[in-house]
Amino acid sequence: MVGILKQHSPGVHKTLERRFSAEELVFLDRLFETALIPGAKQEAGLLRPEGADYNPLPGRILQILLTQLELPSLEFLSAGLLVCLSICELQLLKQDQDPRVRTAAQLAETALNPGNPITEPEAAAAALALELDRIRHLHMRELSADQFETAARRSLTVLARTLATEQNTRLRTLVQATVDRQLRHYE
């Protein structure tokens, strides 16, 4: 049976297949499926050509983590998938029978909570990956210059909330550079 991750993000699946066990792939596939619809809701405002084929948000988050972190663990990838969900959806997952799901939901909730610094490396990487994807796709939304600047500044706020760690240095640098480039473009 072809999993939903392989169906929607075959390149990401191939990379994961080389690095994780079959049981871990089933786990990531389950989380990918959980994140797919909430991720699509976040993408609802993106302007895409009709019939365009694209990697969905959970797949792009995984791709960012796989390319920007050196050998991300299952915990990093799990938290990254679940940042596509709302806080309410994460609250439900924190009751899941699988302790890995509960941990990933807690890390994703930390990443999404705007009031606190993000000190866990997994949560920081998830928050940064989500922001990188958002800022990369701002040009695909109909935004005024003020709305665009507000969105870009939001990314800087997330950057300020994330504790710099050895694991996320490249990702932090990439987010900062992308925000700077986008702001220059709209000046």
Explain this structure to me?
The chain has one domain (4-185): Hypothetical protein af1432 (Orthogonal Bundle). The chain has helices at residues 4-8, 10-19, 22-42, 57-68, 74-82, 87-93, 99-112, 121-136, 145-161, 169-185. Helix content is 68%, strand content 0%. By secondary structure, the protein is mainly α. The mean pLDDT is 84.
State the end-to-end CA separation.
50 Å
Helix content: 55-70%
Number of domains: 1
Q: Class in CATH?
A: Mainly Alpha
- How can the largest sheet be summarized? none
Number of contiguous helices: 10
**Could you say what the CATH topology is called?**
Hypothetical protein af1432
Architecture in CATH? Orthogonal Bundle
Mean pLDDT: 84
Beta-strand segment tally:
0
